[in-house]
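2024-03-11 09:14:02 DEBUG pipeline.ingest accepted 1 chain
2024-03-11 09:14:02 DEBUG pipeline.ingest length=324
2024-03-11 09:14:03 DEBUG pipeline.predict start
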Amino acid sequence: MDKKILARKTFNLDNAELDKAIEDYKLSKNDVKKLEELIRIFRESQVIVPVAFPKKADINVVLKMLRGEPLKKDEEFRMIPVTVSDPKGNKYAPVFTSRDMILETKDFPYMIRIPASQVIRNVLNEKAGLTGVMLDPQTKGFIFRRQAFTTDFSRQDPSRQVQVKKVSRAEFAVLARNSVEKGQIPKTLFEKREEFVRELDERGAELLLEMYAKPYGDKLPSPYTIDDFSVMALDINDETTAVCMELPQKGLFVQAALSAYVIFNPQTKEAHYYMIEKGAKGESNVLCNITPEGRHQELMSAPPVGSELTAVLDLIREEKEEAE
């Protein structure tokens, strides 16, 4: 990777807290509490990760993207994660905590800045075949094993009391909405497929209202009404049915879904689920998807309003062409 590109402001990272947590854990001789705190800090950090690009990617477009220049709609493409291996052949997701930790950029031609939580999601995806995360592989080589992200640390220390945090109404609203948009809807789609697509077509907003109200149960009133939802099903051709869903615009937060798109092939029963998620302040919204395995992926900046469905269909077509 060109060091001039690496010098851009987007790669400015301050992970002093993470570095200190690593050293504290090392000095503690594997103290469980220190490890739990380290994982919490890592999960909330921003990191730099190496990526690869599809063989068909235009090198001029790649360099344009890395320089931070805006891409045209027909230039955008998805990136592929890169892995590193230990002497035993175990594969890890390489992660850099700052650009100062990157000694030889030729080892990793292209890099991007992402939340560490996204790296963790990739590692927890069993199909990725990763043993864990390797921090700063060219210098420290500190390793998080995959199971570290799924361990209940309270069970590891019998003397430790479980602390229960009271969730505020606002926090509950975020959890509830995320559980529907990133959990309940895609899970139902990939389990029921044609049946769910048909129900969305027939019941539309009424069905979504029920799904969004479910986390609130009988004791809390749901903040949504049927007017907060709009559903349109389109039979594009014999192999493509698209269901476009406009989701509640009130109470929005970063990563809330503004809209969602179900793409279904009636012949092969293949299903896809995409969302336009609200971006952070000063940043663009993001086109994401949820895979059948439950993996959440940030794919690209959201396309212009009105062309979301076209962008989704283009991504599916490109993915199919690459697979062939």
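2024-03-11 09:14:41 DEBUG pipeline.report DSSP finds nine helices and 13 strands in the chain.
2024-03-11 09:14:41 DEBUG pipeline.predict end
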